[in-house]
Fold each of these.
Amino acid sequence: MKPMKISEAVVRRLPVYLQVLNDLNARDVQTVSSQELGNRLDLNPAQIRKDLAYFGDFGRKGIGYDVTYLIEKIRQILKLDQPLNVALVGAGNLGRALCNYNTYLKDNMKITAVFDVHPSMIGSAINGLTVLPMDKLKETIVARNIRIGIITVPAVEAQHVADQFVDAGVDGILNFAPTILRVQDQVRIHYANFTTELMSLAYYLDEEGEEDHHEPDLD
Amino acid sequence: MKPMKISEAVVRRLPVYLQVLNDLNARDVQTVSSQELGNRLDLNPAQIRKDLAYFGDFGRKGIGYDVTYLIEKIRQILKLDQPLNVALVGAGNLGRALCNYNTYLKDNMKITAVFDVHPSMIGSAINGLTVLPMDKLKETIVARNIRIGIITVPAVEAQHVADQFVDAGVDGILNFAPTILRVQDQVRIHYANFTTELMSLAYYLDEEGEEDHHEPDLD
DNA sequence: TAGATTGTTAATCGATTAACAATC
DNA sequence: TAGATTGTTAATCGATTAACAATC
């Protein structure tokens, strides 16, 4: 257990490594080098080695990394080797889509409670879960040991939901609403906002065209 | 038109500035300082000023930034002042949720075509759009001047869909499938993967607890 | 004028990359 | 042994922040 501070950039790359490793594993690849991983991810091999070395000596000089072993190790680092209960507020289109994605069962992360403010929603079932009213939020989160809250309500309601999550004692929030949330420092917030993503993508349209995009006619 | 290279970090902050500015605008705030924006976003005011100064002199010394003017300018920078047509492949739960989010009409970005491989889906309507078969993809993208493709299919199909998007001539792809895509360099790919987001969030659980989280009993 | 706040330069900080001894 | 590849140190690169003259 090294007391070294790991940068957020490193932590964000770990799930991506895991993604590629799972893919290699599914194709029965036994061993992979940082070079090979770098190719697949458009990342510098030295960076990958350095990232992994923060957490231990997972590779073998002259050989590379054992795929299944590295998967196991990264899963441990990300705490995916133990169950993680998640609650979701907002049983609209997006919320329901996420609930149905409980494919990530294999990663031990599971949405175990769904809430909504709308009386018409309450009591309906989504992928085996009954939608609960907001006044059951705190007791459910405590009783089911829920650590993370997902917010899929409209932007105007998001802060209010966040406050209730924090009050109920969650440690992290994943916010899909297009708004900034203010919470106590010890609660971590990640944003998953596709509008933002789409906007930054829009910036780059034609951007490369300004350099040398004079397509030679190939007829 | 300065020939300066803008870093990706800067571009990714612009939509977030826009979010906050729209919020201020909705509450009839006329003017905002970098200090105030920094407070709301947990960002250094100097960074905000520097980010904006890459694109022009939008502020007034001693006063701050005019909210509506800055919104207009950022929208121009992100090319949100002109229509941007988007196509989506994968009319499952998530795909339908995104189509129904065409709230972002006000930003001129609009999903104008939806495709799916499953015959059972084809012909059905989602938020006014008819789901089309994949063999109509290229002609539709060309005909409707679609610049961006959204992928909401399972991971194993994602690369194939990406190839078709690239072949049809899109400039950017927003990929929701949990897999890395390989495309020609001039096509830009952004990833919107909540599993990844959830995993990196999981890493931080209890992390702050190791520092000094000895909650003083307050009874 | 005094106070506030920008745009920008210089200083600092941190992250990425190159290079290489260790070793499989 | 020769070739490959790690883990790690040092060098480089780039991004963030501090500081301040300009000016509203």
Amino acid sequence: MTAEPRLSWTEVRDTIRARILARHYAPGDKLPRDEDLARNLGCARATVHRAMQDLAAAGLVERRRRGGTHVPNDPVTRATFDIPVTRREVEARGSLYGYRLISRAIAESPPAVMARFGLQDPSPMLHVRALHLADRRPYILEDRWIDLATTPEILEVDLAQHSANEWLVHHKPYSRVDVRFHAVNAEGEIARHLDTPRGSALLVLERTTWIGSAPITTVQSVAAPGYEVAAQS
Amino acid sequence: MTAEPRLSWTEVRDTIRARILARHYAPGDKLPRDEDLARNLGCARATVHRAMQDLAAAGLVERRRRGGTHVPNDPVTRATFDIPVTRREVEARGSLYGYRLISRAIAESPPAVMARFGLQDPSPMLHVRALHLADRRPYILEDRWIDLATTPEILEVDLAQHSANEWLVHHKPYSRVDVRFHAVNAEGEIARHLDTPRGSALLVLERTTWIGSAPITTVQSVAAPGYEVAAQS
DNA sequence: CAGATTAATATGTACGTACATAATAAGTCA
DNA sequence: TGACTTATTATGTACGTACATATTAATCTG
């Protein structure tokens, strides 16, 4: 008789997940200790621990040393979005990517930008506005501020040829990022550049990065009408 | 002389991350093998593996058996959102939560709803519209469809007293969720219920859940103007 | 009986061994 | 020389041991 195959951590995870889904463990409930689950399922504690790590990352359980493992009392929906550089996104849709620099100027950071970075004092920044196109039609209007203290080399980049978006992603790694979504009505230049009626509802992706605690860039990417962003499956 | 403390996986992760940030490993680059990194850093291969697992989850590296570890050529920004039930979100803001059922009707799923679920044939569903309030002002307008094949018990719930949002989160776990954001202009009933001028730009969170491959619910939560959703830090 | 202290506990972690396996490189063959 | 097969390799994993540590429960003291 051959040895019984060992239980994998993914099988353990799916078993526990099924019990949570079946409300065998309901919101607020405490789960058995790792050691007891291991004995019950016929595997090692480390295998249960690995499965729980995954469940915790998904928000299905909460772990506490000594305190044990619980199903959260107030579950949240956890959704992860992968936001590519715009060129890749357009090309991934099978569309032709286009880029156009609208404006580029050195200026002191305005209050709204300072607020996004959490800055008290203005600092010299490069203000870049650019349009990304898909199949020759406006797709994303980008309004970006780049801190010249951390990123002086952006001044050497020909932003008429290369989007700041891509340059930064390749040359300027960050250690912290803040991402937000909101909606705005198309007005003035936004309506013009995106070639859309004034008043159209537009989705805005705001993304701010820091290296350590020093600001790098903050961008508002205003999407053409109809744009929708989906979490990864 | 006391034994040197062992390197922790978080220290290994931070070291590798710093090297990626410093472009010691640039986009497209292949990293040294786990075993070599372990020797280089003076720790176990399992410790390096644990650190890499975390870096991979953050999207900073890509792992392939035999193929090794690479810095992605096309890095993406990975942002994770935790979406609580509306009551918790309102209370977390220090506001008073209120709830009002607008309408409740059994109907066959319309094409747009079938599309969201990936259904070919319509099925009987409960269509619920409700308003969530913060400090007595409209906050989120919820337009929801609940599949009666998987969730017949929703018919017994007094939705005038309890939001479907909370009932489902507590009683109906799901195994798959699809989350999307887009923007709409406030029109007709939406403008009325949210008490906002027609034409206002509104952020919409769309969330669809399945148990196995069977639909549970799909909801469009239309936020009052000014609403913004932020990724977790 | 409340606050402080101590003990116990359940999870977290470093490691090493042995093995699994996906993926790449090398070799073979027509 | 290209297609196919085989070998090699680098990561993935199960486990067990030993220890670390955050947290909770129990105990002590005034």
Amino acid sequence: MATTVLVVEDEAAIRDMIAMALERAGYRARHADSAEDARAAMRLAHPDLLLLDWMLPGESGLDMARSIKDDAQMSQIPIIMLTARGEEDDRVRGLDAGADDYITKPFSPREMMARVKAVLRRTAPTLTEAPVEVEGLRVDPISHRVFANGDGVDLGPTEFRLLHFLMTHPERVFTRAQLLDNVWGANVYVEERTVDVHVRRLRRELTATGHDGLVQTVRGAGYRFSARD
Amino acid sequence: MATTVLVVEDEAAIRDMIAMALERAGYRARHADSAEDARAAMRLAHPDLLLLDWMLPGESGLDMARSIKDDAQMSQIPIIMLTARGEEDDRVRGLDAGADDYITKPFSPREMMARVKAVLRRTAPTLTEAPVEVEGLRVDPISHRVFANGDGVDLGPTEFRLLHFLMTHPERVFTRAQLLDNVWGANVYVEERTVDVHVRRLRRELTATGHDGLVQTVRGAGYRFSARD
DNA sequence: AACGCGCGTGACAAATTCATGACAGTTGCC
DNA sequence: GGCAACTGTCATGAATTTGTCACGCGCGTT
């Protein structure tokens, strides 16, 4: 999936210039012209980066940056602030609000792209994954921990990846071969029945914490993660 | 201690002009006329800022800037690039390489001083990081000291950086490769197992002061700093 | 009711992954 | 120059994890 950049800027000319440069570089660009619009767009497009204008009608870009960095769900998304001011005082305030970089207008598409790439490179590993939670069972890829209603669950590396994969693709049946590809990795030779064993090990841990029936067997097809029976 | 600026420039006239202006303004100036010299000077004088000429005999200033920004120990030191060229292309490359500002020759001592002061002011908060404290274990980046419930803990440079990095990113697992990038610096080739050894050395010191279990091993994933088990 | 599969289980031995202690090369400091 | 502090590597042994089997149970079909 292409990297998506959300451009929050009310001046159409600048916004289009940026969007064009981004798309020419192979990124997917989305835009919003106010903080309110931006929040809606973030929920829809799940951008990997925000280009946020300092001056916006209504809620300022600075406030928005601050609120995003305070939100556990979105705090991982890097932000580059755009501003017409050149005072470094502002720069400090911007960085202080959680911005990852800062571009002073006027700027060239080229400079902008250089910074976009730099920020993405710097934060790439970070935005990979958010915690998943279903019925009190929470898997957090960042801390690499699993909690069942608050209590820690001890899983081996493979069980962890298996559970995480299934939870991020709920209600969907995967054949053993598909699971091997996605959890073990492509071109890895292991018996398909090995999946059964790991499912069993995973279930054993989950059952011990009262979470039964989440990893379901679909006879003749494979396994599925689902909250309902 | 006076703020030290290292001037890396092979043309004596320019170098002296800069050094004189800096000293008149109360800074301590050191100089080098090649990247090799500069590295030696950095180890000796621990400059707070680098004025780096783009064109140097041997390794270019651009390459040097990049390698410094990749080095965990020196990446905090701000860099101002000096160049005879005015192409924006160069400007982008310079900023991309990690430079904090950019001065085009010819320039006046006055302009240079303004930029030097601006960069130092701007990066001050970065270098002056706040102390981090968790469960009585305090790491103070400013004094470069660690205290466990008031008692000083003696750590080597690498252990200090490792602990500080982990403490500023709690509850998050880092692979050995990520730790090497962030604590040792990118482009530094060391065996991944070396991380284990430093973790052990760090743990040994922490355990001696009663702080066990803070640096945790996540089998198959890496290490994590966390207050809870 | 018998049978054929598909799947759950417990047991294992091999393969990984880590913690540790020892060592030698460097560096900075007396 | 010599000493002390640091670093990066290795070898070793212990602790987990992993991939396979073999065995049986149960479901659906005949």
Amino acid sequence: MILHDIYTIIAEPSRRRILDCLLRSDATVKDLTEELGLSQPLISSHLRLLRESGLVRVQADAQRRIYSLDASPLTGVDDWLSTYRAKWNQHVDRLEEHLDRQKRIKKENLQ
Amino acid sequence: MILHDIYTIIAEPSRRRILDCLLRSDATVKDLTEELGLSQPLISSHLRLLRESGLVRVQADAQRRIYSLDASPLTGVDDWLSTYRAKWNQHVDRLEEHLDRQKRIKKENLQ
DNA sequence: AACTAGTATAAATAATCGTTTATATAAATA
DNA sequence: TATTTATATAAACGATTATTTATACTAGTT
């Protein structure tokens, strides 16, 4: 078996939808199949990967399995992203500067 | 051909390494092959996807192609992550509470 | 005890993707 | 003009992965 890193885990749209569901509230496998309109085995296989990557926890309730979110493994992604945050802020800053300049020019032309 | 969303783009380790390189400084294809130890066609094919997703820009310089980073498409990922940030902060908070309690108990035992 | 509900897993498949090899293009150099 | 340098791309291959189908297991329910 292959160890999945967190980036490939969240690359899958259905898995992100599962996480988004669990962010709102804990849910059983059946809950998730109904909310997302995916087959039970598919949900289960995604949940397995999410479990192995530490993003979800399971708690047994009779036949049911109640899944809940543990977002902490996402901090790694957040750390990686934070290096880039400065960059796109530069972009936004430059855009704002540009708009300010435009505004100033417009004003000057009106005088 | 298939449209790649930003999550699958950054799921690939080599592509993240390319982005990390470009974060430090602009680079030609050759620069990247030497820095990352990957074949030229492989670098080029990764760069193509990065270009298509808007994460990099190209500028021609004779035969060379100078690639530079545009981090702004990553804001989408950042927005998605921000929903989860509150969650893992809860975890950290609980951990801190726990440690504080431990400390307090230790102190009380020493008195 | 038979049946139903909820879930996991194994096998099979189809599609996708990373990687290599080979080739084409375009600009610079000799 | 022939050669070299830098890059892109197409074809081929192997590996991985998402998804379906079928099945097994476990805990209630009748």
